[in-house]
Specification:
Helix 7 packs across helix 21, helix 7 packs across helix 22 and helix 19 runs antiparallel to helix 20. The chain has a seven-stranded parallel sheet with strand order 12-13-11-14-15-10-16, with helices on both faces. A six-stranded parallel sheet has the order 17-22-21-18-20-19, with helices on both faces. The protein contains 22 helices and 22 strands. Helices cover 38% and strands 17% of the residues. Among the domains are: 98 residues, OB fold (Dihydrolipoamide Acetyltransferase, E2P), CATH 2.40.50.140; 190 residues, 3-Layer(aba) Sandwich (Rossmann fold), CATH 3.40.50; 156 residues, P-loop containing nucleotide triphosphate hydrolases (Rossmann fold, 3-Layer(aba) Sandwich). It binds adenosine-5'-diphosphate (ADP) and magnesium ion. Magnesium ion binds next to helix 10. The site of adenosine-5'-diphosphate (ADP) has 18 residues, from helix 10.
Length: 698
């Protein structure tokens, strides 16, 4: 990392919010809740809307909107009982309106606004409780005609909280703007000119002074400028981290004859994408610098075999590998897949899971690893346990990497400080967003599926037609088909969800007898494995499951996927589930059951699934349909929480920001030029300590 002394010019923005006038011990905690602890956070608080205070005559007033009227005070009416408001009745040539004040403002109001005086009042117009008179409760402004200029015609609306209204937030924002210095330009001059964007400070001023609704849109020039700044800061952080990762040395592992033999012994030829990905991995392994590579490949794209060949290369170079899976079931399955081909090349592998009841067996495996007799370890979190020592770990492979927490990845990383890292993910991240998630990694795409797969026939059916679905399933099972039946995890209570799955299991058992199994997250691991095993070997025909099967489990003989309450799942999740069937030669089918009526959005989402089988297309569409927010539920996978950028609305800016970041660092690696100085200020301003990275030992 580059030196992290905060530039002096940023001190005013990095002061605590308590330096802002009025942010005392009562208000500061509220402001902190809305914005954050620093002046900068207040500055970066974008307005959510705007109020236009149209001047009007009373007869023209529109209920529910903030408006401004000029009135004559007719009378002050004391509250008849405590808890009632002080009321001021007023009029103009066209009608009457009442101003209502709760709490003890009364005598003071009467003094300042005596009967007969003319005042300008502004606030949200309503009808009183009985639908009768027009009123404004607690007007925002009540001033003399001379002071009309104090009433803004347009003002920004900020997120507020109880005790801290939008108006107060606006005052703090104005104070934060006052403290905002002009900063040197970090964006590329010609680019900036081409975009027609304002300077950073001008952009912030514009952000906080919307004059019309269009100024609030993500595509307003000042908003785009600020979004680009934020992407650029993030991409710089990622690029620096990537550079840091590359500086780590790791053993040189050349392509091996052993791996070529193993490849030749496979019952299939690698796809073009697999061959390309393997070549990319080999380039890294042979470089002497540590690999930090991610394989992005849709379900069924054949990631395991690529990893296996890399592990054989490592073994041939006398380096050990570990393959880590997020679940016991999956670890076991990987072990069963690769053990034979590895053994055929004389490479010994061990399975290490959390569940080795027999300590002796575990002890023996640990010994094999620490002595270097076993060259490959396959396992789950158990691989993190401190008693697991490798003789010479050279390659770490993490399957379904997004399922692991940052700290778990970090701990494994610590076991192999000088090891190469290969992560695999089947969560299709839209290409446009990939850079924001994985900008610090090298990414290989397995964008080609092995040949001979027929797409899974997908249809949606309303839940009331469940009986029909069961009827069809009867015929299919009679012909020897195997089916997954997925019950969603949706309620706040896992217990309730599990109860729903149990009920479905009971209902299906009534029809299919002992051919139905049940797995869910609350089942003990051993039990889960046993049920899975019976499903894999065909003793069970139907597996009722909560989404535990979502994680890469391979049951090639399963051809039917039924998903209950499909509308509750994300598209990406449904795609993953569907990817579980039709992996063998038999053609698969998928039934998406939904509770009618289906919303239009849900309808469109299910339609996308019916039309395409490409995980990346699905992810991209999902993103478009959902718009902003946390489109793919990525918050937990280390997806950055941007303040000013919207990764969906501004996604066209992500790739340019990454390019600029790369270029800046290529030209000025230590950021010592004058633009480099400006870039450092940008970095400090956003202060990325983005977690969730693979390459970060956390
Ligand atoms: P995923 O990318 O989902 O992890 P897997 O590695 O589990 O995919 O592979 C899915 C299935 O495809 C496996 O049964 C595997 O043996 C098979 N497979 C992998 N590569 C090929 C290929 N090039 N040709 C045919 N089948 C393949
Ligand atoms: Mg897999």
């Amino acid at each position: 990392m580059l030196g992290r002394m905060r530039p002096e010019i940023l001190f005013p923005l990095f002061s605590p919010i308590t330096v802002l006038k009025g942010a005392g011990s009562r208000v500061a905690p509220l402001l902190e809740r809305v914005a954050g602890p620093l002046v900068r956070d207040v500055l970066f608080l974008a307005p959510q809307g705007l109020i236009t205070r149209r001047p009007a005559l009373i007869a023209q007033l529109v209920e529910g909107e903030a408006q401004t009227v000029t009135v004559t005070i007719q009378a002050h009416r004391k509250p008849p009982r405590p808890g009632h408001p002080w009321k001021i009745t007023t009029f103009d040539a066209t009608g009457f309106i009442t101003l209502a004040y709760f709490k003890g403002f009364g005598p003071h109001l009467e003094q300042r606004h005596p009967v007969g005086s003319v005042r300008v009042v502004s606030g949200k117009v309503e009808r009183d409780r009985f639908g009768g008179d027009l009123q404004i409760v607690h007007p925002d402004y009540l001033v003399t005609v001379e002071r009309i200029a104090e009433i803004p015609t347009i003002e920004a609306v900020y997120p507020a909280t109880a005790g801290l209204p939008s108006r107060a937030v606006r005052r703090f924002v104005a104070a934060a703007l006052d403290r905002t210095p002009n900063l040197p330009e970090w964006q590329d001059g010609p680019w900036l000119a081409r975009q027609g964007w304002p300077t950073w400070r001008e952009a912030l001023i514009a952000l906080h002074a919307p004059a019309q609704d269009s100024d609030l849109l993500a595509q307003a020039p000042h908003r785009r400028r600020l979004a680009f700044d934020e992407f650029l800061a993030h991409q710089l952080a990622l690029a620096l981290r990537k550079r840091g990762g590359r500086a780590r040395l790791a053993p040189t592992i050349p392509r091996s004859a052993l791996a070529d033999q193993a490849q030749g012994a496979l019952p299939f030829a690698l796809t073009g994408a697999q061959a390309r990905t393997l070549a990319e991995i080999r380039g890294d392994l042979a470089s002497g610098q540590a690999m930090t590579r991610l394989i992005q490949g849709d379900v069924g794209s054949g990631k395991t075999v690529v990893a296996m060949l890399a592990m054989i290369d490592a073994a041939a170079a006398h380096r050990q590998s570990v393959l880590m899976a997020p679940t016991e079931i999956l670890a076991r399955q990987h072990f069963e897949t690769i053990e034979g081909p590895l053994a055929a090349q004389g490479v010994a592998a061990v399975l290490l899971t959390g569940r080795h009841r027999q300590r002796a067996a575990r002890g023996a495996r640990l010994a094999e690893l620490s002595m270097g007799e076993a060259m490959v370890a396959v396992g789950t979190h158990a691989l993190f346990q401190d008693d697991v020592a490798f003789k010479d770990l050279g390659l770490i492979v993490i399957d379904e990497q997004h399922r692991f927490g940052v700290s778990e990845r970090g701990r494994l990383r610590a076991k192999g400080d000088a090891a190469h890292l290969l992560a695999m993910s089947a969560t299709p991240i839209p290409r446009t967003l990939e850079l924001t998630l994985y900008g610090d990694l090298d990414v290989s795409h397995l964008d080609e599926k092995p040949p001979g797969r027929t797409p899974v026939a997908t249809r949606a059916a309303p839940a009331p037609r469940l009986a029909e679905v069961v009827e069809r399933l009867k015929h299919a099972v009679a012909r020897g088909a195997r089916a997954f039946w997925i019950c969603p995890l949706v309620s706040e209570s896992e217990i309730l969800d599990v109860a729903a799955a149990e009920a479905r299991w009971a209902a299906l058992t009534a029809v299919f007898g002992d051919k139905v199994g049940l797995v869910h997250g609350r089942l003990p691991g051993v039990r889960k494995d046993a049920v899975m095993a019976s499903f894999v070997d065909g003793a069970l025909s139907i597996l009722v499951a909560t989404t535990v099967v979502e994680v890469g489990v391979d049951v090639p003989a399963a051809t039917i996927m039924i998903v209950e309450q499909a509308e509750r799942f994300g598209l990406a999740q449904l795609h993953q589930l569907r990817g579980r069937v039709g992996r063998g030669t038999g053609s698969g089918s998928c039934v998406l059951l939904y509770d009618p009526p289906l919303s239009e959005a849900a309808q469109r989402r299910l339609d996308i699934l019916r039309r395409t089988d490409d995980g990346f297309v699905i992810a991209e569409k999902d993103l478009e349909l959902r718009g902003g927010g946390d489109p793919l539920g990525l918050a937990q996978s280390g997806f950055p929480a941007y303040r000013l950028a919207d990764p969906v609305a501004h996604r066209d800016l992500i790739a340019p920001a990454a390019d600029h970041a790369r270029l800046i660092l290529a030209r000025d690696p230590d950021l010592t030029s004058s633009r480099g100085e400006a870039v450092r200020i940008l970095q400090e301003l956003f202060d990325w300590r983005a977690g969730g990275s693979l390459s970060e030992a956390g």
